[in-house]
Amino acid sequence: MKRRGFMMACALAILPLPALAQDGGKVVIYTPNNAQAVEAVTEVFSEKAPELSLSTITGGSGQLLRRVEAEASAPQGDLFWNSSENTLAGFREYFEPYASPEAEAIQDDLKRPESPWTATNLHVVVGMVNTDQLGELPAPTKWQDFLDPAWKGKVAIADPNNSSTAFTILWGFEKLMGTEALKQLAANVVVNSSASAVLRGVGQGEFAAGFTYESNAYAFVAGGQAEIALLYPEEGTFTSPEFQALIKGGPAPEAARRAFDVMLSRDMQVALLENTFRRPSRADIDVSEHVDLPALDSLKLFPTDEAEAAANRDDFLARWQEYVKAGQ
């Protein structure tokens, strides 16, 4: 019996360990999202997947994607969460596809079966206005208002080279308003290093307005800053879905796939909606039951082509730099 027990123990010792144990359960997430979003995610993970240990590396979308590219021969991250398709497309080769069972609940118009990424949420582009800083300026109601020279130095946007938010906004703006309008805007805006700097600048009164996503601006309203107003421009605005993807060859593939599923779960998307005001990508969540945001069908939305934006990204960024320089 002793010999038999010894042999069984030896056999068990050479059996492969469960995948998560091999991974150590640690998942490294690269994310441009703010601390509030990361905190909400961490809380859901502690309840739904306590076996996983999350480590988050933050920065601008462009900065983090260039890091993924630089690490391609020896990836250090497992999951990229999240960015617009027009930004991810330039780094497609560094991601691998994964058909999460949670993806069945994604809205049909947000599904991308041909791509290695999956939609996590939907943004609406808005103007964030600090009414205390308007002075003699009339409250803006449309994009055209920001082209008035009186707005020069009083409206902010992030650097689109580093911020997918800024690139999406400026690309959509040109499609809606035209190239001449983009040149006029470039002469008026103050370009900030990051999307968070724009929010901070408007929220603290450094700027009278800035361009951002609805969820980012609404956080200030929900936080009690009565002077902050959201502008849905009369000419129309545009939406931008965001996506997450597994980093190809990441150090913890099984744990990463488990984390990927949790990120797409209903519990996670409700938590992000309630805590960070991000409209979900899932079709089984009624936004109005959780936050006080306008229904999408009540907004005038202008369609944009993410594939076209991705294909022309470098040309657009070069032109934008020229317009900003010329307007200084």
UniProtKB/TrEMBL annotation:
SUPFAM superfamilies named among the record's database cross-references: Periplasmic binding protein-like II
Coiled coil: none
Signal sequence region: 1-21
UniProt KW keywords: Plasmid, Signal
The keyword Cell cycle is assigned to this record: no
Protein's name according to its UniProt entry: Extracellular solute-binding protein
